[in-house]
Amino acid sequence: MLGTSLSAMRSTHVSLPLRLPRIGYASRRYSVRVLGDSAAKPAVQNVADLKAWPLESGQDCLVEINGWVRNIRKASAVRFVEVSDGSSYSTVQAVVSKEMAEEIRLGAAVRLKGLWKLQSPPQVFSPPPEEPAPTPDEKPSRLPQIKFIDPAPDAREERPKITVPVGELQVDEVQILGASDPDTYPIQRKYTSPETLRNWPHLRMRTNLNSTLLRLRSDTIGSLSKIFNQENFIQTHPPIITSADCEGAGEAFKVIGGTRESPFFDSPKFLTVSSQLHLEAMAQAAGNVWTLSPSFRAERSDTNRHLSEFYMLEAEMSFVDDMDEVMDLVQRMTRSLVQDLAQQSSWKELEHARRHPRGPAETRTLEDLDDIAVLERRWNGMLVPEKWPRITYSEAINILEEHIDKFERPPVWGQGLGSEHEKFLAELIGYDKERNAYVPVFVTHYPRDIKAFYMRESAAEHHIKGQIVVDCFDLIAPDIGELAGGSMREHLLHKIITNLRHFSLEASANDPRLKWYVDLRRWGCPPHGGFGIGFDRLLSYLTGVRSIRDLVAFPRLYGRTDC
């Protein structure tokens, strides 16, 4: 209670609204503070803000910077200390006297105070060329594209330059907040391969590239939240501990609770391999739902595309009877995401660093990513406004059989497509030469026997060789293979029971682990469908990070979990 009750105050004619007593919160200390009476103080809170601050030349200001030492360069009387707070790919240069810099070491956490001054001359960059706008009667020759590649040097010289003021901190006060031993600190300024950095997952995020990838991941989540909100979906939090293996593949981690002899749970429990089943239940209450949740699979796969713990973006739509609507949503969401990410500072900084690397170590680090021309084709493909190509599984097999000599494992109707098959199809069908684009490709209507029990049987005209096919799709792309998968879910009670019987899961219809899922069909289950996208794999495709082990902060994989 805050003093007198509301009814008592009303009886004594206290006017509302009330002003609550001031508790006395401490002002938050951001990583960067502009000291004094500068009008810019509220806007500058981190290094990214500071570097973007439009300070006029000669208008020096007292600034405090908190961050980590990324590099130290020595001169005769001063030390040039590069400091980062993780908010920007680039660092702040602090000029520190030789005496004050005696305790500053690589990796240390420091607080520096001094005058923020503009360097002279400022840095100069050339903007990408602008394409002429088409006339009212003229169609554009190609789509608006995300520009990555610098034009030829002679073309750059003809264009106006962009002047970017660059500041540095003239330090007059140093405080060591967290010491670091440079002899044992593993993150050095020299080039370190991704494979070596995996030995220190708790430290590798301190590199410029990996800290930027963390921010890009956060920006992607923010963009997805906005996009799904615009599509009238609600975000949900399905459980991580479940009773059933959604895919039925037996690749789930079993949960063992506590150390007592008696079991913690009343029946076997597993870490979820997919949130789909629970999302279906939520969709029957809220209509359209989505989640970005961790999933776990005990696959013994040792590839750059597999992890034991990963994040899945999953969505379910109620009252949808046409699978095209689900595929349309996947394309619309992905296209909107790419458009939004292109405007985020994390992506712009990563793209700028690739065009203007600082030194041989950074050049080699960025060369570990996929070629920037390849990224251009990927992003352009995501931006295509027309419907992405859609072929059936049977059509895909026919195409693959025409190129059978290109594969280690020959394509066979009735078997799943291998990664080599998916990549080949995506490049052959999805490449748009005119637009310089790799357009993702939907492969639809797979045989029932190689898919999950919950998928809806397709109309008879889709059946091949007397085999039942189901209303499902995989979204494939070059270099990475499958990006997404989805289907129409079987919503009729007698048919879901038939499916369980076909997959030798009939007992599950009365097993508490799946009975609740079957029961959804007893009470008002409408036609519905949904999809799932491997979130880490999507980020790998868009950023050019070749292994998702280097995109996830703490990767969990077969045979290795370091911390």
Automatic annotation (TrEMBL):
Identify the residues that the record assigns to the Aminoacyl-transfer RNA synthetases class-II family profile domain, covering every copy.
Answer: 214-555
Q: Which GO terms describe its molecular function?
A: asparagine-tRNA ligase activity; ATP binding; nucleic acid binding
Please name the SUPFAM superfamilies in this protein's record: Class II aaRS and biotin synthetases, Nucleic acid-binding proteins
Q: Which CDD domains match?
A: AsxRS_core, EcAsnRS_like_N
Q: Does the keyword Cell membrane apply?
A: no
Stated EC number for the protein is: 6.1.1.22
The record's listing under PROSITE patterns reads:
AA_TRNA_LIGASE_II
- Its domain of life reads Eukaryota
Question: Which portions of the sequence form the region Disordered?
Answer: 121-144
GO biological process, alphabetically ordered: asparaginyl-tRNA aminoacylation
Q: InterPro entries attached here?
A: Aa-tRNA-synt_II, aa-tRNA-synth_II, aa-tRNA-synth_II/BPL/LPL, Asn-tRNA-ligase, Asp/Asn-tRNA-synth_IIb, NA-bd_OB-fold, NA-bd_OB_tRNA
UniProt lists compositionally biased (Pro residues) regions at 124-135
Q: Report the leader peptide range.
A: none
**A GO CC annotation given for this chain:** mitochondrion
Any idea which UniProt keywords this protein has? Aminoacyl-tRNA synthetase, ATP-binding, Ligase, Nucleotide-binding, Protein biosynthesis
Record-stated family: Belongs to the class-II aminoacyl-tRNA synthetase family.
Any idea what this protein is called?
A: asparagine--tRNA ligase
Q: What species was this sequence derived from?
A: Bionectria ochroleuca (Gliocladium roseum)
User: Lineage of the native species?
Assistant: Eukaryota, Fungi, Dikarya, Ascomycota, Pezizomycotina
